[in-house]
Each structure stands twice: as C-alpha cells, then as structure tokens.
Specification:
Blueprint (H helix, E strand, L loop, with lengths): L1 E5 H4 L12 E5 L8 H18 L16 H6 L20 H4 L4 E2 L3 E4 L3 H4 L3 E4 L4 E2 L1 E5 L15 H6 L8 H12 L4 E3 L1 H4 L8 H7 L2 H7 L2 E5 L17 E7 L14 E6 L25 H8 L3 E6 L2 E6 L4 E3 L13 H5 L11 H12 L15 H11 L3 E2 L2 E2 L4 H4 L2 E3 L27 E3 L19 E9 L8 E21 L4 E6 L2 E7 L12 E10 L9 E10 L7 E12 L16 E6 L1
Organism: Colletotrichum fioriniae PJ7
Pfam families: HET
Protein name: Heterokaryon incompatibility protein
Length: 601
C-alpha cells in the first residue's frame, strides 16, 4: 500500500533547510518505487492541459485544417481517429478533434503504433499524403546504432518490425507514445534510410527537420542518454527514507487500522541548472544537451517532454514549464523558437530577432557534431523559420540585414574543454562562424547595456556583394563555397606568432602592437605571406559607462597564396578597447590611405 501526502492535502513541510522537495511519501512495509506508468500519467495530464487550454496545437510549421466541417477533416485521412473513436490517455474520453483542431501532414515514413497495444505489433508505414498525429524522438545515437533502417531491411520493416529488435531508447519511446495513445512515432534512425548521407532519401528528409519536429504533437527528449542503448525510463529520481515513526504517533491522519511503523521519504532537490543553455565555461557533455542536431529538435518542438537525470519535465510554446519535482521557476535561459519566429511585442531595441539569433548561435556552437560538415545543416530548420520573421537572405549562418557586419565579429572560445580543430573538409567561408568547429562568442551591439549600441564605421564601410553556393536546393543548409566583397579600411600589417599552443599572435603597424588569437589552432606565419587588418566596426562605450572608450572590432586577413592581393581569407579576430588619447591608437594612423576593396573567401 502506497499513500502520497503532499502539501495541498496535508500541509506537511520538511523545510527549506533540508533542501528537499515539498512532497513526502508515507509507505508501509515497502520501498517507494515509482513505476513508469505513474510517471506517464503525470505527463499525460500536462499534455492534455496544453491541448485543451493553449494555442500550441500543431506546432509552428503545422498545416492548419479548418474545423468548420469535421466530416471533411475526418475524410482527409482514413488513419485519423474518428469522433468518439478512442478513449486513450491523451484523449481523456473526449474526441481528439475537440481538443486538437490542427492536424499535420505525416513525415515520409512513421512507425505505426496502432496495433502495438492489442497485438504487440509494430511496422514502418509509408505515409505520403497522409495526415495525423505523431510524436518525435530526440536522442543521442552513441558510437553505434545497429537498429537503423537500410535499403536491405526496409521492405521487411514495412510489414513487421519486432519490438524486441529495437535498442532500449527506441523501446522506451514506443512505450511513452503508446501509453499516451499517440498513433505514430517518428525516429530518424528508423524512418530515414541510413547508410548513405548523400542518398536522395537522407537529403530530402534531413532538409525537412523543421517541419517534422515542428508539426509533431510531442517531442520526446532522451536528454540524459549517451547511447541509443541506454534508454530513459528506468532511472527515476526516487525519494530516500528520512526516518520511521509509529502510526499511533500521528494524530488526525487516517493511514489504516493496523498499528505499524511508517517510513517518511523525501527527494533531495535536484540541480535544475541543466535547463539553461550552456555557459562559456560549462558546455554540456551529456546526452542530447551536448549534441548539435538535437538543438533544433528541441527548440522547434511545440511540446517537449524531457527525461534527464532521473527527472521528467514538460514545456510548450506557451512557455509553460512543468517538472515532476514541482520546481517552481520558469525555464532558465531557454529561448524557444516562438521567440525567434514570432518576437513578442514588448521586445525592445536590445532584443531584435537578429540579436536573439546571434545569442542562439553562441549556444548552438557549444554543442558537438560527429560530422563537422553538418554544421549548417543541423541548424537549417531553425534558420528557415527565423527567415520568415526577418524576411531577408541567409548566407552561411548570417543574415544579410543591417546587422550583417556586426555578425562577422565572432571569435572562438578558448579553453581546454572547448578547443576543437577546423575540419579538413570545407564547411563554410572563413568569415562565417560555421567555419569554426567549436564554440564561438559574438560581439553583439545590444547586450550588456540598458540601451542599444549603434556601431560606427570608419569612412564608408560597404558590403558590395555576398555570393554563396549552397550544396543543395536548401539555401539554409550546407554550402560548398562563398565570398563577400567589402569596401572599407584594410590596414597593411605584420604578424608574429606569440604562442602556437595558445594560438596567439600579434599585429604590428606604426611600431604599435595589438594582440589577437588565430582562428585555427597551431597556426603558422610563413615568410612572404601578406596580412591585413580590417576595421569591421567600432562600438562606443554605453552611455552609463564612466570610461569613454571605444571598442575596435578587428578582423585579421591573409592574402591567398598565388592569388591577387585583394583575395583573402580570415585567420583571426580581436577586439581592441582604447580611449582616443591612448598612445597605442597610433596603430590606426593614416587609415584613410588604406581604403580599398577586398574579396574574403
């Protein structure tokens, strides 16, 4: 017998000094195990509340179906539940159409769960042109995933896919979706033919990630699993026994007629800092929170059910956050795609969509990629939706708007844990943050002050042309080439390497030195190479600052060997903060004679 007594019912409080959750469990004669069924009943309540009361239905990219004629809706897809057909967990004895008016086009293939409960049968289903409700799984593959769909086993799986053959994370996802009576489940390893990333199927499906995750009724995130074999339902954060008391010592508490000892359990308050995005010093290293591909899967979700550290929590587009432990705070630092796609009216000048995009990039680059060339592809779904808000062209991770020049002011984050090398394969132009396979930071002219900071430019710095060659028809995905043509101040400089281990160098001009960091680790300066310092922009100090200095954002360029002098590549960046009277400002003396046009590749 297990009885749960919480604050709302009995006002028992174990106190903040113990740093425990405000819930106790009274048990007789057994441990306080909590089955996955009990946990998913809680998840069901959260999801149903959202379906009934919020406008999250169908996701950001959902195909809206008018509900004036329900017969027409039902007739569009023979697989869609008819009115009154089911009394499943999410449906809560109501027609799904009464709670969820928007239905979405199913992905190319889905895992059919409709016979799993009655016959324990699964199969892949070709779902072209079908509409319905489905869940998605966000997870980490790990070193090996043997449960994937290939051209060799696709035909058999369209007829039958044995549950026992699935890795544990897939099994747990099936369990969750089936318990919630969601009829279909999408898992990339099962629903996209694997084995050739250049195949037509992989290219088409990977380019539709925004729609697939955005249209799902629920995204299930196995955030704490480092491998597809780990699973995520088996390790709940269980209460621990504090002490035992005799039932006769408790007044006015009905616990049964037998005299016996009772155990009092409480769960230690969990650290919820994982809810926020990684900081510069603390990149996440576990599960989906460390993977680049999982970033857009979670951000695009209209509803996200996350399992992490033995805890389960729920978040939706209405910014509602629920946790098993009743954690009271709102999400810590989480920016949803809703804020990028549909900026709030109260956003000030400091929180433009581009500012939020640059902040998003900083957090995205703190995650890891197995294949470096996926750097832009893994973010393309988010980029396409943001593009509908900014309504401007996209160029290898940057937006061609008034903040384009400022977006070029990025630099790698330097510490042992985050240091990673450039890919040998081409990923992006040298001026793009995507060219660096590791975390970056940006000089955002909106953060850190109470008012926007307007960048200043020496003479007329002008972007003459931006030329990008996409790898596919998706102009927000991978690229195979690109350059920008810019007119501005390009100072001739000498460059010395100070420390190869720290990728540190120094620019020299007019006998003055400005230190900087190379983008690439272990960069070498060779005889005969020609270097330039491009003054990208100048940021004044905030009006509240007592120090009237300016920050010069400087890009270090190197002429391409064997090419014309104006053809260069980026090799480093620095910010140079000085007052106008500082002697080191002699570095910029005579800059007007250095106005020229350069092509940066």
């Amino acid at each position: 017998m297990l009885e749960r007594r919480d604050l709302a019912a009995n006002k028992y409080h174990l106190g903040r000094p113990l740093d425990v959750e405000e819930t106790i469990l009274l048990t007789r004669g057994r441990s306080s195990e909590q089955s996955w069924q009990v946990r998913l009943q809680q998840a069901n309540a959260w999801i149903y509340h959202c379906l009934k009361n919020h406008q999250c239905n169908g996701g950001l990219a959902a195909k809206t179906v008018q509900d004036e004629d329900e017969n027409e809706v039902g007739g569009r897809n023979e697989n869609y539940p008819e009115k009154g057909e089911s009394s499943g967990a999410i449906l809560q004895n109501k027609s799904f159409l009464e709670a969820h008016r928007q239905i979405s086009k199913l992905p190319r293939r889905v895992l059919d769960l409709r016979q799993f409960g009655s016959e324990n049968r699964l199969r892949l289903m070709d779902s072209m042109a079908d509409y319905g409700d489905y869940a998605c799984l966000s997870y980490t593959w790990g070193r090996q995933n043997t449960g994937v769909t290939t051209t060799q086993n696709l035909h058999d799986r369209l007829d039958d896919l044995p549950y026992e053959s699935l890795p544990q994370t897939y099994k747990d996802a099936v369990t969750v979706a089936a318990f919630l009576e969601i009829p279909f489940l999408w898992i990339d390893g099962l629903c996209i033919i694997q084995g050739d990333t250049n195949s037509k199927d992989w290219v088409e499906q990977s380019s539709q990630m925004a729609e697939i995750y955005g249209n799902a009724i629920l995204v299930i995130a196995a955030a704490d699993s480092n491998s597809v074999e780990d699973g995520f339902l088996s390790t709940p954060h269980l209460p621990q026994e504090l002490f035992r008391i005799q039932s006769s010592q408790l007044e006015n508490l009905e616990i049964g007629s037998e005299e016996s000892a009772l155990s009092v359990f409480a769960r230690a308050m969990l650290d919820h800092s994982w809810l926020g995005w990684s900081t510069l010093a603390e990149p996440k290293s576990r599960g989906t929170l460390s993977r680049s591909w999982c970033f857009q899967e979670e951000v695009l979700a209209s509803r996200l059910l996350t399992f992490f550290g033995g805890e389960m929590n729920f978040q939706c587009l209405e910014d509602e956050y629920r946790c098993e432990c009743a954690f009271p705070a709102a999400p810590l630092g989480l920016v949803t795609i809703k804020e990028l796609y549909e900026p709030r009216l109260e956003l000030g000048d400091m929180e433009t969509p581009n500012w939020m995009w640059q902040s998003t990039i900083e957090h995205y680059t703190r995650r890891k990629l197995t294949v470096a060339t996926d750097r832009l592809t893994a973010l393309s779904g988010v980029a396409r939706i943001v593009q509908s808000s900014l309504r401007t062209k996209y160029a290898a991770g940057h937006w061609l708007d008034r903040d384009f020049l400022c977006s070029l002011c990025w630099a790698p984050v330097r510490n042992r844990e985050t240091e990673r090398t450039f890919s040998e394969d081409y990923v992006a132009p040298s001026w793009s943050w995507a060219a660096h396979n590791g975390p970056i930071t940006m000089w955002i002219p909106y953060g850190g002050s109470e008012e926007p900071i307007t960048p200043r430019f020496l003479t007329k710095t002008v972007v003459r042309n931006v030329d990008i060659t996409p790898a596919t028809e998706d102009d927000t995905g991978a690229v195979i080439g690109g350059n920008i043509t810019v007119s501005g101040v390009f100072l001739d400089i000498s460059v010395l390497t100070i420390s190869r281990e720290q990728s540190a160098g120094v620019m020299i001009r007019n006998s003055e030195e400005i230190p900087f960091y190379f983008d690439r680790p272990n960069e070498e300066v060779r005889d005969g190479e020609k270097y330039f310092c491009w003054v990208v922009c100048i940021l004044p100090s905030p009006s509240v600052s007592k120090k009237r200095s300016e920050t010069y954002c400087l890009m270090v360029l190197r002429s391409m060997p064997g090419g014309p002098a104006h053809l260069c590549e980026r090799v480093g960046f620095t910010d140079f903060d000085r007052t106008a009277s500082d002697p080191s400002m002699k570095f910029f003396k005579g800059f007007r004679a250095s106005i020229r046009t350069a092509v940066i590749i």
